[in-house]
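Input/output pair, single chain:
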Amino acid sequence: MNINKLCPICNNIVEPDKFHPNKKYCNKKCRSISSSRRYRKKHIKKLREKWRKHPLYNTIKRKCIECSEIFSPTDRFHPTQKYCGKSCMRKVIDKRYANRHPDKIRRKWKNYRQTERGKQVHRDSVRPYTWVRRETIKQKGYHLSPKDQRFIRKRDNHQCVYCGDTKGPFHLDHIIPIKPVNKGGLNVIENLVLSCDKCNTSKQNRDVFNWCKDKNIKVPPKIIKLIKNQIKKGYIKPNYLNNLR
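Output:
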C-alpha cells in the first residue's frame, strides 16, 4: 500500500514523481528552509561572529523576561529573542514544570534529602546560627516531645509570660539561654516559657535579668519559681539568683 508522506516543514502531503520517488519535501521553498536550518546548526559560531560585526547588532535591544537585563539578540534569525542566555531560559522552563507538576517535585526532593549529598547541601543551606543551635540542643541530651510542648502552653495559660499577649504567634523561649554549652541552660521544661514573637526576638541569647533591666520590666514571679525548681534539681548553681539583686 502506498502511504502518503508528510512534509516535515509545512505538514502537507508529498506527491512523489518518476524522477523523485523518495521525495521528502512538497516544494523547493520547504527544501531550502530545511537546508538553511541544517547549516545554522553546523555553523552557529560563525554566524554569531558575523552578526556581532554587523552594524545593526547594537541597534536592536531586548529585555530578558527572567532577569530583566537588556541585551542584543545572539542571531539575526531570532530578533524577538526573550532570554539573555540559556540559564534564564532553563529557569523559566523549570518554574513552569514546577507549577504543573508539584507532586513530582516534592517526591524528588524527599528522595534527594535522604541521600548523603542532600543532607550535606541542606546543612550548608540552613543558616549557621540555627544549625549551631540544633547541635547545642543535641549536646544537652534532652528532646522535647509534643506532650511537653502542650504542657508548657497549658501551664502558661496560652499567653506570653513577659507581656501577657494572648494573640500570638508564640514561641518557646529559654529562660537561661542554651549557648554557650558549658555555662548555658538546659533544654528542659523548667527552663522553657511561652513568649510572643516580639519578646523572643528582642531577648535572643541574653539573660532574663539583664533583658528585663534594659526594658524596665519586673522579672515575672513565674520565672523565679522555675529557676528555683532548676536549682533544686541541680540544673543550675544556687548562686544564679544573685543576679536578681
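The mean pLDDT is 82. Residues 144-244 form one domain.
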